[in-house]
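Action item from last week, closing it out:
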Amino acid sequence: MPSHPVPSRRLALQAGVAGIGLALAGFVPAALAQTPAVLKVYGPGGPAPAMKEAAAAFEKATGVKVDVTAGPTPKWIDAARADADLVYSGSETMMSDFVAAMNGQIDSADVIPLYLRPLSIPVRPGNPRRIRGFKDLLKPGVKVLVVNGAGQNGVW
């Protein structure tokens, strides 16, 4: 359990880079209700630069110190289980994985999507098959690779 007061329900935010500032701004009411000495924030490395910038702005505006720990999940998940106040992610599927990995400490009903990334279809240089949309992927001879990793999500 965290060594400082936290809201009764864990705060979990799915934050894309564009929504990270809003993530910390949205935490203000809960943070002011039970102000911890240090707000412990965990998440992936991709959005970390923006999260750290937003954390500095939040600290300046509220006086609440924010400690952002970011990187590959195995490097921070155990610490997050022990003392996370806020967990952010880089995608919806990533947050679903974090909800499962946090062993019930994040209620999926508390997850707030702040930014949904638009779907894109990467193509070979010059787009030789002239792929313009999903229907083009169904044409004979078109090969499709589905990825599902850190920051990338397959569509099926």
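Closing note: Strands lie at 11-14, 38-43, 65-70, 86-87, 111-113.
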